[in-house]
């Protein structure tokens, strides 16, 4: 049985193996395979993270605490990250919020709600265990606190939208405990409130935290009048909001009516309800994230052809959805599989450009 060697020694081994003096012996895939035999989190190019603990937050929500390798660049509270896992021989990728602020011990937490049709979320809640290794992307997103947090902040969340907001609240507790926070969270019942015990403990020991739990199963959803009252209460205070599309649109409408929409910072996972269906004949704007190129895609044309017409050169093979050479990460937006009519609306999903058409504005990893 191999005995793991010290991380410092591992770093020297990686440096030696990647040296140009050993070329062509320093094939990256071969090196990755070799050092992975010592420790599955060691890598020259990939951010690997080991699960060190799992916490059940509610009946269908679970937090995994991860310890990433030395390639993790660090994150700001409120950012999200692409997570990749190998499940039953297939790689599955999804984007999730980091629910913890930066920690001195280098670990991070990601909290995921189980969705019956979500392969990764089901695995996350039912099968993931300490010792499992995931691959992470680089953290991204601007749902973050200012460098100097203001004296007063409003936070609104609903359902699993609480995860990035909780990271902000935890960060404020460490960096700016004097900041006054009005935190309104909506959930169906007390048992469905993610982080409920921690939230109530925070409110008990932090007099500047005004925690308001709105239980929709008892009181119904926050209506326009209630949101207008909240908008007036918030005034010009910086407001962070995250939740389902309908909730987000209702909040934005209330803040717009109050003349304070410019003070609203939102994190959206999914498209607004007003465009969720899309128009199959309508052209849609597409932004190629890595190349910086934007183009317009026709609603009935494959994205591969439209990208090529915009002078992009995605890899491709069969052009009929068989070989998966043109697989591409969709950072945001809705696409339709032209073969089946299936709509992909989750951020971070992998799509096939040759058989996918735009059904909303898109951002692609091209």
Set out the fold topology:
Layout: H1 7-17, H2 28-36, E1 47-58, E2 61-68, E3 80-87, E4 90-97, E5 108-113, H3 119-126, E6 133-136, E7 152-158, H4 162-175, E8 180-187, H5 196-205, E9 209-215, H6 216-219, H7 224-234, E10 238-242, H8 245-257, E11 264-267, E12 284-288, E13 293-297, H9 303-309, E14 327-332, E15 335-337, E16 343-344, E17 349-352, E18 356-358, E19 362-364
Parallel strand pairs: 7-8, 7-10, 8-9, 10-11, 12-19
Antiparallel strand pairs: 1-2, 1-6, 2-5, 3-4, 3-6, 12-13, 14-17, 14-19, 15-16, 15-18
Helix pairs in contact: 7-8
What would you say this structure looks like, in words?
The chain has helices at 7-17, 28-36, 119-126, 162-175, 196-205, 216-219, 224-234, 245-257, 303-309; strands at residues 47-58, 61-68, 80-87, 90-97, 108-113, 133-136, 152-158, 180-187, 209-215, 238-242, 264-267, 284-288, 293-297, 327-332, 335-337, 343-344, 349-352, 356-358, 362-364. With 366 residues, the chain is of the alpha/beta class. It has four domains: 1-45, no CATH class; 47-136, Translation factors (Elongation Factor Tu (Ef-tu), domain 3), CATH 2.40.30; 152-269, Nucleotide-binding domain of ferredoxin-NADP reductase (FNR) module (Rossmann fold, 3-Layer(aba) Sandwich), CATH 3.40.50.80; 275-364, Beta-grasp domain (Ubiquitin-like (UB roll), Roll), CATH 3.10.20. It is globular and about 60 Å long. 34% of the residues are buried.
């Amino acid at each position: 049985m191999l005995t793991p060697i010290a991380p410092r020694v591992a770093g020297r081994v990686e440096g030696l193996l990647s040296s140009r003096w050993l070329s062509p012996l320093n094939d990256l895939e071969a090196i990755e395979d070799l050092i992975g035999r010592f420790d599955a989190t060691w890598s020259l190019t990939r951010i690997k993270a080991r699960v060190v603990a799992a916490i059940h937050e509610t009946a269908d929500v679970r937090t995994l605490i991860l310890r990433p390798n030395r390639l993790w660049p660090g994150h700001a509270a409120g950012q999200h990250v692409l997570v990749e896992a190998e499940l039953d021989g297939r790689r599955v990728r999804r984007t999730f919020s980091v629910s913890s602020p930066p920690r001195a011990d280098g670990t991070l937490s990601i909290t995921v709600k189980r969705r019956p049709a979500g392969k990764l979320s089901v695995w996350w809640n039912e099968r993931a265990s300490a010792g499992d290794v995931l691959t992470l992307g680089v953290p991204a997103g601007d749902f973050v606190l200012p460098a100097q947090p203001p004296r007063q902040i409003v936070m609104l969340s609903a359902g699993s939208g609480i995860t990035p907001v909780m990271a902000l609240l935890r960060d404020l507790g460490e960096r700016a405990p004097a900041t006054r926070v009005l935190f309104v969270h909506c959930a169906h019942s007390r048992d469905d409130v993610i982080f409920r015990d921690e939230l109530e403990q925070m409110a008990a020991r932090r007099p500047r935290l005004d925690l308001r739990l709105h239980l929709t199963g008892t009181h119904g959803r926050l209506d326009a009048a209630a949101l207008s009252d909240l908008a007036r209460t918030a005034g010009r205070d910086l407001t962070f909001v995250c939740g389902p599309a309908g909730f987000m649109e209702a909040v934005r409408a209330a803040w717009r009516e109050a003349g304070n929409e410019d003070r609203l910072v939102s994190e959206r996972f999914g498209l607004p309800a007003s465009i969720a269906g899309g128009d199959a004949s309508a052209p849609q704007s597409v932004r190629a994230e890595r190349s910086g190129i934007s183009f317009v895609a026709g609603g009935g044309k494959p994205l591969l052809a439209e990208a090529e017409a915009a002078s992009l050169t995605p890899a491709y093979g069969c052009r009929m959805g068989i070989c998966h050479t043109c697989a591409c990460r969709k950072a945001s937006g809705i696409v339709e599989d032209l073969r089946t009519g299936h709509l992909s609306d989750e951020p971070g999903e992998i799509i096939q450009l040759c058989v996918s058409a735009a059904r909303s504005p898109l951002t692609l990893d091209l």
